[in-house]
Amino acid sequence: MEKPSKDPAAVDDVKVIKARGPWKTKSNGELMVLYALAYVDIDAYFEYDDKELARIPGDIRGLRSYTVRNLSEGELGGNEFHRIRKEMVFVLEGSVRWGCVDLFGGGAEFIITPENGVFVPSFILHTYEVLEEGSGLLVIANTLFDSEDPRTHDTYSLEKFHELQKQYMSKKGS
Fold it and tell me: What is the distance between the alpha carbons of residues 64 and 141, in angstroms, rounded to a whole number?
């Protein structure tokens, strides 16, 4: 596993995103602002490393969102990292425990509910545990995805993460 050309993110770069609301709408519904980002944050979200992009066939820069619904309490997910993709993750209903580990050995955990979310930079291993039956996630990613072409998926395993992490941890011990 080749090291990134730029310094990778650390767990301290994972940001909690606070939701605002809910407020009653004119139609008597509930309005919830999941996120409101300043331009500087949006600009950073769409910043890509050209050397990492060169690893992937085609141009996967873009914006997409997806949901993962009807999760069962106790289920585990994620256990992966991305070399290019950055993600904002929100809980639509229920709650999850979101864990992050960086290449330097740092770690952090967050409880995500409909009142908050997390911004996860590239090169951060992330996992989640479902804390409530019927939980659901909304993920907003800064890359496109072709389900028919695994080379565009930009998703790497725990084993690949540990292989890469060894290169940083050996420096730390020196």
Answer: 5
Cα–Cα dist 101/108, whole Å? 7
| Full domain range(s) for residue 169 | 13-173
Residue 150 is assigned to a structural domain of this protein = yes
In a domain, 42, yes or no: yes
Q: How many CA atoms lie within 13 Å of 112's alpha carbon, on the beta-carbon side? A: 31
pTM here is 0.91
Tell me whether residue 8 is in a domain.
Answer: no
Residue 3 lies in a domain: no
The angle subtended at Cα 31 by Cα 23 and Cα 19, nearest 5°, is 90
Residue 78 maps to which CATH number?
A: 2.60.120.10
What total of structural domains would you count in the chain? 1
CA dist list (Å): 70 to 1, 95, 134: 35, 12, 4
> Per residue in 10-24, pLDDT tens?
999 999 999 999 999
